[in-house]
Amino acid sequence: MVASGLVAYFLLTYKILAGRGYQFWVLGGLGAVLLLLILLNGLKRLGKTTLVLATIVILGASYGAYQMNATVNFFNKLNTNTQKQELTMSLATLAEGGVADVAALDGKVVLAPLGQDRDNVQALVDDLKAKRQVTVTVQEVPSYLAAYQQLLDGKAQAMVLNSGYESLLEGMANDFSSKIKKLYQYNHVTEVADQPAKPEPSNQQTSQTPAENQPFNLYISGIDTFGPVSSVSRSDVNVIATINPKTHQILLTTTPRDAYVPIADGGADQKDKLTHAGIYGVEASMHTLARLYDTPIDYYVRLNFTSFLNIIDTVGGIDVYNDQAFTSLYGKYDFPVGELHLNADQALGFVRERYSLSGGDNDRGKNHEKVITALIKKLGSRQTLLQAQEVMDRMSQSVQTNLPLTKAMELVNEQLESGQAYTVTSVALTGHGSTGLPSYAMPGAELYMMQVDEASLAERQAQIKQVLGQ
Q1: Terminus-to-terminus CA distance in the chain, angstroms?
Q2: DSSP category for residue 347
Q3: In this predicted model, what pLDDT tens digit does every residue of 31-71 receive, in sequence order?
Q4: What pLDDT, in 10s, does the model give residues 177-213?
Q5: CA 198, 202, 206, 211 torsion: positive or negative?
């Protein structure tokens, strides 16, 4: 009775198997069998057949309740992950000739870009004073790159470092990691608001979400870093999935990481590489893209590719079509033209590469889409369903999403109801490369940017609106 009650609760609360009357048949069948068992028990006619039937019902209901509970817990964990983002703030000195211990910095000056990162810098300073009784004076510099350059020049004994900017610094100075050592670290956790991103400024946003079975936009962000998926990091993959359940259309719109666009929120609406929006949090990336394409973005999925692609080995690899031969920098894998079967490490090399591709970052974006599409297909296979628990365990460590289970089940139920396959179309924003453009996150740095082609942008905006039915 308890197991049957749990099955009914999960089915009705989360709209599981609501398509084609499956709920009615499952609940009706359970109710009929339970009623029969009650009647037979009242008549004192519990024979062997009845006992076998009762055992099957109990085991079936228990298994069903267990699997539904596991699915609900899985989505709850993914949703809980979205409620926070983490970054590590550090005090760093030179690896050679620098300060030996953080206590030696008491009363000394350290360098930090207060104009860019005041709140995080202050959080580190406060934590250092509270836990180690060390007080430092912060001298403002234009950027973390400027702080590092002045540290090298001996103008200060230490600098503040935000982990979200480390990959940017490593891109500008190959020996950055070996030149410094960290004296003190503070893990700074902040809460993330769960609101759809609207095309208008964020202070005018509403919390409205799409009605049942209505079209919506889902932002897919891919980071490539060690540590938990909640770590603040650049977003190297930026895809808007426009999903229309009524017409069974999915439009995947890729925006290259180097696209030179106004960055929302922490980017102060100044132009910079799109990938830099990620260091201000996933919300900044959502708001940036919502304004760029003049469309609301209702939900997001954030993947840590370094750990997420490990799922590929769990499901036995994926198959993709490669349209140009290349050798990856990561892993030195040779990828010929044609159908490829990839394991997790090969897939990581496949999605990371851009320098060997004729289209550079644009082609890398296409390879990201290929891997994501192939993995989605594999996750929906019958073989993978038998490994559901293992797959969910791995995904919960590498995925964040604010997509609720009820919305996911709407898509599943609609698919069960219609039986019609989705048509998936992939497009990408284009432009031309340029250097010398100012970067808000890295002022003074010579960075490659992609200046957006306005005709391409207008076409992408129109395609998104068309799939949304606008």
Answers
A1: 48
A2: H
A3: 665 665 565 565 555 566 666 666 666 666 666 666 666 67
A4: 899 999 999 998 877 665 566 676 544 343 456 767 7
A5: positive
What is the rounded CA–CA span in Å between residue 275 and residue 273? 5
464's tokens: 């998104």
User: What was the pLDDT predicted at 61?
Assistant: 60
Residue 423 is inside which H or E element, if any? strand 423-428
The token pair at 79 is: 């949703």
- What's this model's pTM, rounded to 2 decimal places? 0.77
Per-residue pLDDT at 258:
93
Both tokens assigned to 194: 């769960």
β-bridge partners, 363: none
Q: What is the DSSP letter of 264?
A: P
Long-range contacts at 128-133 (CB < 8 A, ≥ 24 apart): 128/91, 128/102, 128/184, 128/186, 132/102, 132/103, 132/184, 133/106
Distance CA 368, CA 389 (A): 25
**What CATH homologous superfamily does 84-191 map to?**
Periplasmic binding protein-like II (3.40.190.10)
CATH number belonging to the domain at 216-468, selected among 3.40.50.2300, 3.40.1390.10, 3.40.50.970, 3.40.630.190: 3.40.630.190
